[in-house]
Design brief:
343 residues, alpha/beta, Spore Coat Polysaccharide Biosynthesis Protein SpsA, Chain A, ten-stranded mixed beta sheet, 13 helices, 42% helix, 17% strand, globular
Length: 343
């Protein structure tokens, strides 16, 4: 693990106190937000102060009121960025925070006991970026369970701890100074709501900071129910997969995404291979339920393939040219994508 700055601590009469900020982006999350905030605040212990920041992205319900009542500080995404921009919400929360590390937690994730201690222990061991596990709650309907199995087969608590090329943002901790010195989450659509974390993670990896997966830092992910939701989410995640993974290298077998046309042609057979891989990952973990869901998992991978093809066409036709309209990210992405071959 890389050398990192010292953990942020404040002296008090009882000794040094470590400040930790937890940033929770939200949109129409009134049903769960109070429970999430309470579960985070329950992680407090002597020597650790918790700052919980809920960033509301144009919710039409009482998300903000319930978050405040549960003890969180509430911020609002500016109107010009609001409406489906979790990247902007996370960046706003990080800029407004005071703790070190900054922990990003989604509004549908309930931290398990010991979650915060496991994150801090990994940071104390030298990790600048720590990704926690996402586990399956007991009470989800079948469609939500299938969505969980399709999305989190590489970051559940049955996986071993160690370095990984990437970690998604629902349960993710990063040291303050390195993150604030990075480009942050990508706020430009369509990257603002899918694969928005890959650019800054690639930036930190280039500086020598490894991403560490810590299975003990577990949160229960309450996937949204509905079969159409599963297909939509799979399509949306895949839409930016080729440029996001190919340009940053923050993926397993990222080299494949550097060949957009090849990936688009191979999308359907890759969907079948991906289905088998997901099932194999869960079997290796001793979880057999996904085998009963193979048809649904295969449909989600076909939806993923469709999204990748559509996103690939977008990227080849106009996505690259849009870099000219994003000067803060343009030069960085131009350098990263200069080696991508359109074979």
């Amino acid at each position: 693990m890389s050398t990192q700055p010292r953990m942020h601590k404040v002296d008090s009469p009882d000794g040094p106190v470590r400040g930790v900020s937890v940033v929770i982006p939200t949109h129409d999350a009134e049903e769960m937000i109070a429970e999430v905030v309470a579960a985070v605040r329950a992680q407090a212990r002597p020597g650790v102060t918790l700052e919980v920041i809920v960033v509301d992205d144009a919710s039409g319900d009482d998300t903000a009121g319930r978050a405040r009542a549960a003890g969180a500080r509430v911020l609002n995404v500016p109107a010009e960025k609001a409406g489906g921009n979790p990247a902007a919400a996370r960046n706003l929360g990080a800029q407004a925070s005071s703790g070190d590390p900054i922990v990003f937690l989604d509004a549908d994730c309930i931290p398990a006991p010991g979650w915060l201690d496991a994150l801090l222990e990994a940071h104390d061991g030298g990790a600048v970026v720590v990704g926690g596990a996402l586990d399956l709650p007991d009470d989800l309907p079948v469609s939500a369970r299938c969505d969980y199995y399709c999305g989190w087969y590489l970051i559940h608590s049955g996986r071993p701890a160690g370095p990984v090329p990437h970690h998604p943002p629902p349960n993710l901790s990063v040291r303050r100074e390195p993150f604030l010195q990075s480009a942050g989450f990508t706020e430009e659509a369509p990257f603002s709501y899918t694969n928005e974390e890959r650019a800054w993670q690639a930036e930190l990896r280039r500086r020598g900071h490894a991403i560490h997966f810590e299975p003990g830092a577990m949160a229960y992910h309450h996937n949204r129910p509905g079969w159409m939701n599963l297909l939509r989410r799979s399509y949306r995640w895949a839409y930016t997969a080729i440029p996001a993974k190919g340009s940053t290298g923050t993926a397993r077998m990222a080299w494949m995404y550097r060949y957009p046309r090849t990936m688009m042609v191979a999308a359907l057979p890759l969907a079948l291979a991906h289905t088998a891989y997901i099932c194999a990952c869960w079997i290796r973990a001793g979880v057999w339920e996904p085998l009963l869901m193979v048809p649904a998992i295969a449909l989600s991978r076909i939806s993923y393939a469709a999204g990748m093809v559509a996103g690939g066409f977008w990227w080849l036709r106009e996505g690259r040219h849009r870099l000219e309209d994003a000067p803060e990210r343009g030069e960085e992405l131009r350098m990263e994508t200069s080696g991508m071959e359109d074979t």
